[in-house]
Amino acid sequence: MSLKNDINMVKEELNSEEKFFERSVITERFIKKYKNAIIGAIVLVVLLVGANVANSIYQKNKTIDVNNALTVLAKDTKNSDALLTIKKASPDLYDVWIYSTAIAQKDMLTLKELRTTKAVLVGDLANYEIAQNSKDIKALDDYASKQGAIYKDLALIQSAIIYMSENNIEKAHNELLKISPQSSLSKIASALLHYGVK
């Protein structure tokens, strides 16, 4: 009985070694067949990881440079090197800085230049400031009629007040009625309708 068990055990060991060698041969054939694809995939993964790390370092350095430039500009608003650094690194941030400076200095020429900026928010705010400072009803109405105008309702109230000062009550009333009841300025519009425009 023990001899039979020993023979079965030896057979099982030989079968498992045979299967191991068989798998090794299959793996070797697979690797030989797809060697270039495997190497290419590994190289691609290494390159992607390397590019990601390099981009991350670049973005971090760019952020540090912009922050340093903003710190310099906070102390010296006319520092051209700091402005150039911001302009190269982040044109939208540069436009925001120029906009804030133009507002502080009431520089209408710079605001007019900013109307066509790629920074949509800055362009919208510049358009509003120009219309508001000019006290021109047409400019305010043009601004208010634009899709997505941020200060649409405020421009309508300003137009209504200008019409009121000209005693053109009907037009003032029409401007105030354009303001949505959901607007945060609807109470002011209602007050003007009831008390200011009669």
Structure description:
This protein is an all-alpha fold and 198 residues long. Helices cover 82% and strands 0% of the residues. It is elongated. The model has no long low-confidence stretch (mean pLDDT 83).
What fraction of residues sit in β-strands? under 5%
Percentage of residues in helical conformation: over 70%
* H/I helix tally: 10
The profile of the biggest β sheet is: none
Strand/helix succession: HHHHHHHHHH
Give the overall shape, derived from the CA principal axes.
elongated
Mean pLDDT: 83
Low-confidence spans:
none
Number of strands: 0
Rg, please? 36 Å
Counting helices, strands and paired strands, the structural category is: mainly alpha
Distance between the termini: 118 Å
Which helices and strands appear, and what pairs or packs with what?
Layout: H1 2-33, H2 35-75, H3 80-89, H4 91-105, H5 108-114, H6 120-134, H7 137-145, H8 152-165, H9 169-177, H10 186-196
Helix pairs in contact: 2-3, 3-4, 4-5, 5-6, 6-7, 7-8, 8-9
Sum this structure up briefly.
Helix content is 82%, strand content 0%.
Summary keywords:
198 residues; mainly alpha; 82% helix; elongated
